[in-house]
């Protein structure tokens, strides 16, 4: 499985953009990058995913470098409720079309007033 | 839609005992996953079902662990002869084929083996 590297922790002021980096230098050409987050004492929550183009949804934007060796998750206007552990994941396709998520240790994002 | 539910939420057991956890996925979700999460770590994949068929098992899943999804709806995860190293949060997730990129996770069952 391709390995991901993320900073252990980051701080962000409420209302500002939070930019969370991830390195995945061993990613192969057809592997997707996924982002999930886990708020304390809850199960993980899907945020966004992409292959090589930048993606945006109602929660966040995902910027993937041209060589696909790294990506950045952007929360455009962070709120206190965005405080969570953010996981960058390289998805492994499973038999029958399922997806294996290998989470790593993630980045603890703390949003402060 | 009540989301993925898991039962029990907490389980304390003595070493050597057997335990069984239940997961009820979101209705009509045909894919179901089990993960295990220890303190300070991200979840680790254990096993995966498509309908009632168990299609993938992690090497982490020793022969003391068994999972079933008999009618393609709810699933059970049983641990036999529990060990202290089995203490963890056991998470269940489900997804639809059409939107398989998004796994919906339950709140987990926290197991403590004393």
Protein described:
The complex is a heterodimer of chains A (113) and B (114). Chain A is 0% helix and 46% strand. In chain A, strand 9 and strand 10 form a beta hairpin. Chain A has no helices and 11 strands. Chain A has strands at 9-13, 18-23, 33-38, 45-50, 55-56, 61-64, 70-75, 84-90, 92-93, 99-100, 107-112. The radius of gyration of chain A is 14 Å and the shape is globular. With 113 residues, chain A is an all-beta fold. Chain B is built from no helices and 11 strands. In chain B, 36% of the residues are buried. Chain B is globular and about 40 Å long. Chain B has strands spanning 5-7, 10-13, 19-24, 31-37, 44-50, 53-57, 65-68, 75-79, 88-95, 104-105, 109-113. Chain B is mostly beta strands and 114 residues long. In chain B, a hairpin with a 2-residue loop joins strand 5 and strand 6. In chain B, the strands form 2 sheets. In chain B, strands 2, 4, 5, 6, 9, 10 and 11 form a 7-stranded mixed β-sheet that branches. The A-B interface holds A 32, 34, 38, 41-46, 49, 85, 87, 91, 94-106 and B 4, 31, 33, 35, 40-45, 48, 50, 53, 55-56, 91, 93, 95, 97, 100-108.
């Amino acid at each position: 499985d391709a390995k991901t590297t993320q900073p252990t922790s980051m701080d962000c002021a409420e209302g500002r953009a939070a930019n969370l980096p991830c390195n995945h230098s061993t990613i192969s050409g057809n592997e997707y990058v996924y982002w999930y987050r886990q708020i304390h004492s809850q199960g993980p929550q899907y945020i966004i995913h992409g292959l090589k183009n930048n993606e945006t949804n109602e929660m966040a934007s995902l910027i993937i470098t041209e060589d696909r060796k790294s990506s950045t998750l952007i929360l455009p206007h962070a709120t206190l409720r965005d405080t969570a552990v953010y996981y960058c994941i390289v998805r492994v396709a499973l038999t029958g079309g399922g997806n294996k998520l290998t989470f790593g240790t993630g980045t603890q994002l703390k949003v402060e007033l | 839609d009540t989301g993925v539910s898991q039962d029990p939420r907490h389980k304390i057991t003595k070493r050597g005992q057997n335990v069984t956890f239940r997961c009820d996925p979101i209705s009509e979700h045909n894919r179901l996953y089990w993960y295990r999460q220890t303190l300070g770590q991200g979840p680790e994949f254990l096993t995966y079902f498509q309908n009632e068929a168990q299609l993938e098992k992690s090497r982490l899943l020793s022969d003391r662990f068994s999972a079933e999804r008999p009618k393609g709806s709810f699933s059970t995860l049983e641990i036999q002869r529990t060990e202290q190293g089995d203490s963890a949060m056991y998470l269940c997730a489900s997804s639809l084929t059409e939107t398989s990129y998004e796994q919906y996770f339950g709140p987990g069952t926290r197991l403590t083996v004393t």
